[in-house]
Write a structure and sequence with these properties.
With 1057 residues, the chain is of the alpha+beta class. It is built from 36 helices and 34 strands. A hairpin with a 2-residue loop joins β31 (891-892) and β32 (895-896). The termini are far apart. This is P-type Ca(2+) transporter.
Length: 1057
């Protein structure tokens, strides 16, 4: 076992010491001895048990806090803060009280009056359950964060190693051994390495794409970012290579992951309502005021019916109050509230959003939170990561530079392809017939000095190992085999056949691992002839410094002179200017003591055990060539950026990559124009944070770039944008991105590269990690919003009609035409299918050519409100009118209505029906409705109560029919049915059929007819319903024509101006 496994138990006594203050101590900028002194511990002994107990009292357990969320009862109460819900609750309570009163009085309609409050209570319960379920999901990100913590650790205490100590028992000052595969259990300072190298995968915390090397050497700066703390291991990260002994510096909520936990919790506490939720709440408050005014007005114009008095000596005297009539008009007020509230709206909105999530899922956008579908539609800024989102996250070689025929020339080859698919693209101007010796050597080094592999997963090619090495293997496959090479021994199904061939003729027998000092990696290989050689790849400048020769096109080796070196460095500079990552290739045939090396038993093997010898082994090299690699942009991203520009959406790129590389990619994909001056549009994270006018910079038109950005920079940018009224979509994949994802209006996590923490904190997950998927989702979100606007307006216009109907009934003094349970049925069931079907309206072709709507845009502008008020007034006139027609007319427009034998009355009698008992000689004939005979011999005045059942049925049927025809009007906000016929949305025609079917159900099934207080209609009565209902289409067509004319006139005026 290495040094970390030794027992240093003797001499580990000493007096107890006061605990350190790790929160202010920059362990990364202090030496190992200073750290041991600060934490009052020795790496040889560890902490004493009694000292551990004292430190537990000071620092607590090494675990993340459990934030207690609101109780279920609090969540339930939270659901009743919605204005519409409160109105419904009041209506339900009052309705229940009136039903109870009617039942106590022996009222015949008791069953129907109890149905109404029970249905309203059921709506409220379902709404509360759904709301509580959604709220309960809010803390999932914090739970996912806990899952990435380590559970056990190997800790030294009292001079003894404890192999499986629970990680939550760790305290600052504990000595911990880490080895390959371990999760780091707390933030800790590396004291010494047991192996020669130590690499840690910390990308989920820092955003780095590759595992990073760790050392025990201190960092020069007290104030450095997480990536710069090379001697620190962070809780939740994973050791992928090597082993070491560390000193715990921070535990629990003081670790870096603990800080992220706090930020996620803080961000979750300040989640804003979605734009639609805000609009609906505003509408609810507006509706409350309208309902209040109308209810008061209805009472005022009907007060004469339940409160009368006489004037004596000019003063009112002898007041008479009718409690029965008072409760009757109170019921009208309740009916008014029920009519005004679109009870089915929450269910229809949820259904439409759910359908929207299915559409988005087909486009690889997986929506986790339903309201985010609508929020996407008003996104004004997309803050996107670069790696893997704008780019493929698959490194590829784009340029190959080889030696020429003489020392004064180089050859350059352009390479196509953006994925790990060996057949994706080709090398331009490649000598297919006979590959020269220099190109063969480059191919050999790229294939053999390489630890990566590529496999096929479905339709994708996936790399294992370093992305740059995988790209080199793809290059080797594109280069092909040297002419005349035997391939009979190769597996024809092998994807990397050329790499396999090179590894067959050059067997690797030793590896000199990469390190940051020499910036290269090499392998010793034995050829089929039995001779050994060294193949090297690494940073071009470093290889040139250690090279004394170059290989020319024909394979000849000549001295490397200054002019040739200058030519190579010039090519290197050109590629670096294009933001390419460059790698050089070199080799060596004269290996001195390694010429006969054949494995670990060889005498020279001891030289390989010390990495400090690698630089001397990799000397006097023969330089062969270089390649330029990059993480290429996704092919579809340029078009998606253009779509964003046309749609008025600003794209900001926030990346941890270096500035030059990010700027080159941004120019290529169209975030910046080719010749655009970006000196005021491209910043590093630290540069931007130091500016005093950050908001002014963010308000610039066009794209912006933030490179070398840390998580806190992302959060600050999102916060500033939201303060400025922007609707922000933010992408992220790491644990460190979770707070910004939570803070953004739309948090978008990566499905492939993303951590579970990022996914749980997000509103949407990209199944393909592709930026163009975000843009497609925004277009879908806009379409869904437009459709939602259509059915919200449809439902509200229907409710305006119902309010108008009840108001006219009260104002004219005629019997109540529609009872609350019938209005509930219409609002919930009959209106529901057409409203939902409007969510299937096809997407506008130019939807991504319009600017994003403002989040505070009203659902209903003045013209739309006027239009629907006219429609609503007609609905009121039609429903009340058909009620009056049945009582006062034997026929209407040639339609005979006298077939049932009912008695006709005058309008005056109908409007003064409350005085019926004082009419002399008033008699009513029996009439039939369906199979029921209605007789009024005992009390003729019941003709205006139980006898109104046929007139009520006609009113309800007219209301249903008008609302079905009105749904056709809602297909387009201002387009005629001639230009947008009903069959563009066949779902709407199906929904209308379903709604009519449901209406027939309650009409012709006796039990349901009794519950709803209606009776069957005959053929002539249905003709009357259609004659009264169909004009709603003509009225709205005229109003749409006026609206279109005004728009054309205003647009023409703007052009003239």
């Amino acid at each position: 076992m290495g040094k970390g496994g030794q027992n240093h138990g003797r001499g580990c006594g000493g007096e107890p010491l006061s605990p350190p203050s790790p929160s202010t101590f920059p362990a990364w900028a202090r030496s190992v001895a200073e750290c041991e002194a600060e934490f009052k511990v020795s790496a040889d002994c560890g902490l004493r048990s009694d000292e551990v107990r004292r430190r537990h009292e000071v620092y607590g357990w090494n675990e993340l806090e459990k934030h207690s969320g609101p109780s279920v009862w609090q969540l339930v109460l939270l659901q009743f803060q919605d204005t519409l819900v409160r109105i419904l609750l009041v209506a339900a309570v009052v309705s229940f009280a009136l039903a109870w009163y009617d039942g106590g009085e022996g009222g015949e309609m008791g069953i129907t009056t109890f149905v109404e409050p029970l249905v309203i209570f059921l709506i409220l319960i379902v709404n509360a359950v759904v709301g509580v379920w959604q709220e309960n999901n809010a803390e999932k990100a914090l739970e996912a964060l806990k899952e990435i913590q380590s559970e056990h650790a190997m800790v030294k205490r009292d001079g003894e190693w404890l192999p499986n100590l629970p990680a939550k028992d760790l305290v600052p000052g504990d000595i911990v051994e880490l080895k390959v595969g371990d999760k780091v259990p707390a933030d800790m300072r590396v004291l010494y390495l047991i192996s020669s190298t130590l690499r840690v995968e910390q990308g989920s915390l820092t955003g780095e794409s590759a595992a990073v090397n760790k050392t025990n050497k201190r960092v020069d700066s007290d104030d450095t970012d997480i990536q710069g703390k090379e001697c620190m291991g962070f809780a939740g990260t994973t050791v992928v290579n090597g082993s070491c002994v560390c000193l715990v510096t921070q535990t629990g909520m003081n670790t870096e992951i603990g800080k992220i936990h706090s930020q996620i919790h803080e961000a979750s506490q300040s989640e804003d309502e979605t734009p639609l939720k805000k609009k609906l709440n505003e509408f609810g408050e507006y509706l409350t005021a309208i309902i209040g005014v109308i209810c008061v007005f209805v009472w005022l114009i009907n007060v004469k019916y339940f409160l009368t008095w006489e004037y004596v000596d000019g003063w009112p005297r002898n007041f008479k109050f009718s409690f029965e009539k008072c409760t009757y008009y109170f019921e009208i007020a309740v009916a008014l509230a029920v009519a005004a509230i679109p009870e089915g709206l929450p269910a229809v909105i949820t259904t439409c959003l759910a359908l929207g999530t299915r559409k988005m899922a087909q486009k690889n956008a997986l929506v986790r939170k339903l309201p985010s579908v609508e929020t996407l539609g008003c996104t004004t800024v997309i803050c996107s990561d670069k790696t893997g989102t704008l780019t493929t996250n698959q490194m590829s070689v784009v340029r190959l530079v080889a030696m020429g025929r003489s020392t004064d020339m180089l050859r350059s080859f352009e390479v196509d392809g953006t994925t790990y698919d060996p057949h994706d693209g080709k090398i331009h101007d490649w000598p297919t017939s006979n590959v020269d010796e220099n190109l063969r050597m480059i191919s050999k080094i790229a294939a053999v000095c390489n630890d990566a592999s590529i496999a096929r997963s479905g339709h994708q090619f996936v790399a294992t190992g370093m992305p740059t090495e995988a790209a080199l293997k793809v290059l080797v496959e594109k280069m092909g085999l040297p002419g005349g090479s035997a391939t009979s021994s190769l597996d024809s199904s092998e994807m990397l056949r050329c790499c396999q061939w090179w590894n067959g003729i050059a067997k690797r027998i030793a590896t000199l691992e990469f390190d940051r000092t020499r910036k290269s990696m090499s392998v010793i290989v034995k050829s089929t002839s039995g001779s050994n050689s060294l193949l090297v790849k690494g940073a071009v400048e470093n290889l040139l410094e250690r090279s004394t020769f170059i290989q020319l096109l024909d394979g000849s080796v000549v001295q490397l002179n200054d002019s040739m070196k200058g030519l190579i460095l010039e090519a290197l500079h050109d590629m670096s200017s294009d933001a390419l990552r460059c790698l050089g290739f070199a080799y060596k045939d004269d290996l001195s003591e390694f010429a006969t090396y054949d494995g670990e038993d060889h005498p020279a093997n001891k030289i390989l055990l010390d990495p400090s010898n690698y630089s001397s082994i990799e000397s006097d090299l023969i330089f062969a060539g270089l390649v330029g690699l990059r993480d290429p942009p996704r092919e579809e991203v340029h078009r998606a950026i253009e779509d964003c520009r046309a749609a008025g959406i600003q794209v900001m790129v926030i990346t941890g990559d270096n500035k030059e590389t990010a700027e080159a990619i941004c120019r290529e994909i169209g975030v910046f124009r080719t010749e655009e001056d970006i000196s005021l549009k491209s910043f590093t994270g630290k540069e931007f944070m130091s500016l005093s006018d950050k908001k002014i910079r963010l308000r610039q038109k066009g794209g912006l770039l933030f490179s070398r950005a840390e998580p806190k920079h992302k959060q600050e940018i999102v916060r500033l944008l939201k303060e400025d009224g922007k609707v922000v979509a933010m992408t992220g994949d790491g644990v460190n991105d979770a707070p910004a994802l939570k803070l953004a209006d739309i948090g978008i996590a990566m499905g492939i590269a993303g951590t579970e923490v990022a996914k749980e904190a997000s509103d949407m997950v990209l199944a393909d990690d592709n930026f163009s998927t975000i843009v497609a989702a925004v277009g879908e979100g806009r379409s869904i919003y437009n459709n939602m606007k259509a059915f919200i307006r449809y439902m509200i216009s229907s409710n305006i009609g119902e309010v108008a109907s009840i108001f006219l009934t009260a104002a004219l003094g005629i019997p109540e035409g529609l009872i609350p349970v019938q209005l509930l049925w219409v609002n919930l069931v009959t209106d529901g299918p057409p409203a939902t079907a409007l969510g299937f309206n096809p997407q506008d072709k130019d939807i991504m050519k319009k600017p994003p709507r403002k989040s505070d845009d009203s659902l209903i502008n003045a013209w739309i409100l006027f239009r629907y008020s006219i429609i609503g007034l007609y609905v009121g006139i039609a429903t009340v009118g058909v009620f009056i027609i049945w009582y006062t007319h034997g026929s209407f427009m040639g339609i005979d209505l006298s077939g049932d034998g009912h008695t006709l009355v005058t309008y005056s009698q109908l409007s003064n029906w409350g005085q019926c008992s004082s009419w002399e000689g008033f008699k009513v004939n029996p009439f039939t409705a369906g199979s029921t005979l209605f007789s009024f011999d005992a009390n003729p005045c019941d003709y205006f109560k139980t006898g109104k059942v046929k007139a009520t049925t006609l009113s309800l049927s007219v209301l249903v029919a008008i609302e079905m025809f009105n749904s056709l009007n809602a297909l387009s906000e201002d387009g005629s049915l001639l230009s947008m016929p009903p069959w563009v949305n066949p779902w709407l025609l199906l929904a209308m059929s379903v709604s009519f079917g449901l209406h027939f159900l309650i009409l012709y099934i006796p039990f349901l007819a009794r519950v709803f207080g209606i009776v069957p209609l005959n053929f002539n009565e249905w003709l009357l319903v259609l004659v009264v209902s169909l004009p709603v289409i003509l009225i709205d067509e005229i109003l749409k024509f006026v609206g279109r004319s005004n728009v054309r006139r205003l647009s023409g005026k703007h052009k003239d101006d």
